[in-house]
Amino acid sequence: MDPSKTLNHLHFFLPTFVLCYCMILQSVYTSNLDYKQLVYNHCANQTSEDHTTVSLSSILPALFQELLEHSTKSKFFETNAGNDKVAVSGLFQCRGDLSNKDCYSCVNKLPEVSNKLCSQSLPARVQLSGCSIHYRADGVQTSGLQLLHKSCSGQTGSIGFPERRDAAFAAVQECIMSGQGFCEETCESIHVMAQCDGNLGACDCGECVNTAVEIAQETCGYSVSGEIYLDGCFVSYKYQGNEFNGDWNEG
């Protein structure tokens, strides 16, 4: 019997079997989206005071260069840079499925985008599809659960789509709770990806991803794709089948 048909009969009654089925079908999916595509940026409303701006003009290039150097061998790196006037904490993170070469290429794009969009603003954050950079005054703490960006497709799936998507969510949540900082799963043609910042512990990572999943469930409904970015993690999903309702309209 076709396993997808079997799953359709069982998933309302045996959610554990659905979860196992999804986890067996771990995705080898590679996004065809440009990993250098801008997702969002957050910049301080005002640039720093004059003396700080002068300092940042020399500190930020040094920070960017150090982050770039580490992107050839790591998907996450956090460091500090500064002088006697200002100290800056910065980090980059690449998506877990990128190669080291693509990670480097993505991070190499970040300073250009950051300088264009945020100038000398502090704090600043730029998120591309494949990588991100975040820098702020050293010592400033952030909430890993703060919602930074959300997007849901205007195109919707057929009846039963949310249940199928939630089964894929459950598989990714299970993967994350096992201590993996990056997970992706495909279940009934729904591809889900989740990743936490490299400085989050397993418990905080699980809480962050669970929160992002809840936001996606509440706000995206039948949307066939969506992405939720919190301060400490992101969750995205995309339906790869062909049963659609409505017109494509990112919102």
What do these coordinates show?
The chain is of the alpha+beta class and 251 residues long. It has two domains: 3-30 and 145-239, Killer Toxin P4, Chain A (2-Layer Sandwich), CATH 3.30.430.20; 38-137, 2-Layer Sandwich (Killer Toxin P4, Chain A), CATH 3.30.430. It is 37% helix and 26% strand. The protein is built from six helices and ten strands. The protein has helices spanning 3-10, 15-24, 50-70, 100-118, 161-177, 202-220; strands spanning 38-43, 76-82, 87-94, 124-128, 131-137, 147-152, 182-187, 190-196, 225-230, 233-239. The strands form two sheets. Strands 1-4-5-3-2 form a five-stranded antiparallel sheet, covered by helices on one side. β4 (124-128) and β5 (131-137) form a beta hairpin.
Question: Main traits of this protein?
Answer:
single chain; 251 residues; alpha+beta; Killer Toxin P4, Chain A; five-stranded antiparallel beta sheet; 6 helices; 10 strands; disordered C terminus
Order of helices and strands: HHEHEEHEEEHEEHEE
The proportion of residues forming helix, as a percent range, comes to 25-40%
CATH class placement of the largest domain: Alpha Beta
Q: What's the arrangement of strands in the largest beta sheet?
A: 1-4-5-3-2
CATH architecture of the largest domain: 2-Layer Sandwich
Query: What is the total tally of β strands?
Result: 10
Major sheet: 5 strands, antiparallel
Count of DSSP H/I helices: 6
Q: How would you classify the helix and strand content by structural class?
A: alpha+beta
Low-confidence segments, ≥5 residues, pLDDT <50? 1-21, 23-32, 246-251
Overall domain count: 2
